[in-house]
Specification:
There is one protein chain. This protein is an alpha+beta fold. It has a single domain, classed as 2-Layer Sandwich (Beta-Lactamase), CATH 3.30.450. Helices cover 40% and strands 18% of the residues. A 4-stranded antiparallel β-sheet has the order 2-1-4-3. A hairpin with a 5-residue loop joins strand 3 and strand 4.
């Protein structure tokens, strides 16, 4: 029998609330945030008022991609570009290779899930996702 560490609703909510606190400093730039478990299934999601539909879908896809591929979406995008590969080459239409998704790992390296943020410039999305990740690091040991 195997025992698996699981990312829970508490960690997802702490992460989302931390990201929202930072994002609300500029409510004129609304974002969407998604947290997924290791299988890419959504644990929690939120969008700010007036967030456009596309960033909402992209945030979900970034969290999913980070979780199932076990890496940050910016790093995956760079590898795909260097290998001259496209999303469709992997056979999963849910994958999103844009910066702004970060993988959540246990201190032993086990992938627990992913955080996806969308609505700003890609590097700003990633910065916010990292803020959320940093807010739960102490809970992942």
């Amino acid at each position: 029998m195997y025992g698996k560490m699981e990312l829970g609703l508490n960690e997802a909510q702490v992460s989302i609330n931390t990201i929202l606190t930072k994002a609300m400093e500029n409510e004129e730039r609304p974002i969407a945030i998604s947290v997924a478990d290791r299988n890419g299934k959504m644990i929690a999601y939120v969008r700010m008022d007036r967030c456009a539909p596309l960033p909402q879908k992209i945030a979900i896809a970034k969290a999913y991609t980070s979780a199932i591929m076990g890496d940050d979406t910016g790093a995956i995008a760079q590898r795909m570009k260097e290998a001259n590969r496209k999303n469709s080459d992997l056979g999963d239409p849910g994958l999103m290779f844009l910066q702004g998704g970060v993988v959540i790992k246990h201190s032993d390296g086990t992938v627990l899930g992913g955080i996806g943020v969308s609505g700003l410039a890609a590097d700003e999305d990633e910065e916010l996702a990292r803020i959320g990740l940093n807010s739960i690091q102490h809970l992942l040991n």
